[in-house]
Amino acid sequence: MQLSEQEIVRREKLTKLRELGIDPYPAALYPVDATSKSIKNDFEEGKKVVISGRLMSRRIQGKASFAELQDSEGRIQVYFNRDEICPDDDKTLYNDVYKKLLDIGDIIGIEGELFKTQVGEKTVMVKNFSLLSKSLRPLPLPKVNDEGKVYDAFNDPELRYRQRYVDLVVNPHVKDTFIKRTKITTSIREFYNQKGYLEVETPILQPIPGGAAARPFLTHHNALNVPLYLRIANELYLKRLIVGGFDGVYEFAKDFRNEGMDRTHNPEFTVMELYVAYKDYNWMMDTTEELLEKVAIDATGSSKVKVGNHEIEFKAPYPRVPILEAIKIHTGYDVSEMEEDELREVATKLGIEVDDTMGIGKLIDEIFGEKCEHHYIQPTFIIDYPKEMSPLTKEHRTNPRLTERFELMVNGKELANAYSELNDPIDQRERFEDQLKLSEKGDDEAMFIDQDFLRALEYGMPPTSGIGIGIDRLVMLMTNNSSIQEVLFFPQMRPEKKKVELTEEEKTIVDILRPQGEMSLADLKDKAGLSGKKWDKSTKSLSKHGLIKIEKTESDLLVKYTG
Fold first, then answer.
1. Whole-angstrom Cα distance, residue 365 to residue 385?
2. Which residues take part in binding Mg(2+) 1 (predicted)?
């Protein structure tokens, strides 16, 4: 492992600390009794406190120094004075340990007394301090110039998502997003618990990936010698519990779908599913309106939430628009009586890519997704989906071609999916068999037949309504984030590129070229000042590693920096 100059220096300090008899990673409990927030809220001059956190800045002025300590609640100013810390003749703790061997990013513990500076800032006078963890890598701290402009900010998304631990330290607003996420899930739990519903857990490893139309992840259990799937949904297990006699159950579930990744999709995501006996989808719409209004107020303090350029109003009631009517409104086509071939022709006319594996349900889904979905900014229930789109949903009580299903659209995206649940085991078997036919046509997202779930239905499931709410998307809305990666602590990332170790000659070329972006080969070679042999070897290596690209123009050879 090649270390930077700063990393080498920090390791040397680590050695010196140990030589002084200081353990840079002590095991003993540190008796913290205050935080930066509690100190500011309950300030009392002369009060003794014990705090801990990261050293984030310091201004050393001889035998005194002001510094900033950051803990889980924020930052607090601390004051180091050599004679307070070292009242005896031995000044090592201040002169050597504090001034020379501590670094920004080190985690320290402080025993001290509270006082206010001449300008009125609440501060901790350090009486004693302990090193609790030595930081061996420098933090990428943003800097502010005299004009207030921030530079060297840690804002590259690739680095932030890979190194979320650093992101949370140096970008305090990121922590606010995840605190709000917890408030949202807590609010949902409170709402359902007050209604007497039971929070449960169901299997993640499943023999049948049921409950949704999606491509699963496949694994293998060695002891049983059977294939298993990471769940794509927890629906069928929760409905088994309704069969078993529970009136209301819900689960915050990690689901996994082996599909594409983009700003609103991650292969691992969180969904909350609720199933309540003796209810229907009309009741579920009323309940969902009530829930989301509460969540918005609990998380943001208002039922109105700023999302991008829009202000979303979560106060009930929400409009209810049949999906086929929505398609007619936004495309001009009445698809309510169309068969598969007609739908495929309409989709083609609308510029939607189709193929022979797509049945009626998928064609309507594509038309709505491409041409209608984005129009629904304010919360809107899209209701009464065709039967082909909803294999787990009860047939509509007034139109046998439709089902009692809704999807909640907010800010142009689906937030929730809900049904009056199909509890007729014979009808359910026929729907599964229709899905099997789609699978045989090549639809790799068609549902599997779950024979055990069918057996459960044959024992009898009461009329039930169920809903799934995408928690990640809900948090995106409530925190005004347009990317799912911003609301996941550790989003899935592409494999990290292996760092290329450059020779001194290669570094010289890169340092000249990178600020310019591109240069003529002749100018770059002249500025690099390398011999012909070293030049040839270095440019070949840089090209091989994808750091530069040499292109021929009409008059010259151009070198582009591509790293």
1. 9
2. 407, 414
- What does the pLDDT look like over 33-78, one tens digit per residue? 999 999 999 999 999 999 999 999 999 999 999 999 999 999 999 9
Cα 436–chain centre separation: 34
| Cβ neighbour number for residue 467 with a 10 Å cutoff | 23
Tokens representing residue 351 in the block:
């510029």
pLDDT digits (tens, 9 = 90+) for 242-257: 999 999 999 999 999 9
What's the confidence (pLDDT) of residue 161?
95
Dist. CA 26–CA 28, nearest whole Å: 6
Query: Comparing C-alpha atoms, which of 465, 469, 470 is closest to residue 282?
Result: 465
Q: Chain centroid to CA 454: how far?
A: 36
Least confident of 192-196, 266-270, 357-361: 357-361
Is 289 annotated among the ligand-binding residues? no
Is there a cis peptide before residue 317, judged by omega within 30 degrees of 0?
yes
Both tokens assigned to 367: 């038309």
293 is in an annotated binding site: no
Question: Would you list the DSSP string of 17-70?
Answer: HHHTT--SS--S-------HHHHHHT--TT-EEEEEEEEEEEEEETTEEEEEEE
Q: How many CB atoms lie within 10 A of CB 337?
A: 8
SS (H, E, C) 317-365: CCCEEEHHHHHHHHHCCCCCCCCHHHHHHHHHHCCCCCCCCCCHHHHHH
Mark 154-177 as b/e (b = at least 16 C-beta within 10 Å): beeeeebbbbbebbbbbbeebeeb
Beta strands across the sheet bearing 548-552: 518-520, 557-561, 548-552
For residue range 88-104, what is the model confidence (pLDDT) as tens digits?
999 999 999 999 999 99
- State how beta strands 205-206 and 218-221 pair: unpaired
Give how far Cα 321 sits from Cα of 324, 325, 372, 407, Å.
Answer: 9, 7, 11, 10
Question: Crossing angle for the helix pair 532-544 and 504-516, nearest 10 degrees?
Answer: 70
What is the DSSP track for 492-544? Answer: --PPPPPPPPPPHHHHHHHHHHHHHSEEEHHHHHHHHT--HHHHHHHHHHHHH
CB 106 within 8 A of CB 54: yes
* CB-CB contact of 488 with 474 (8 Å): no
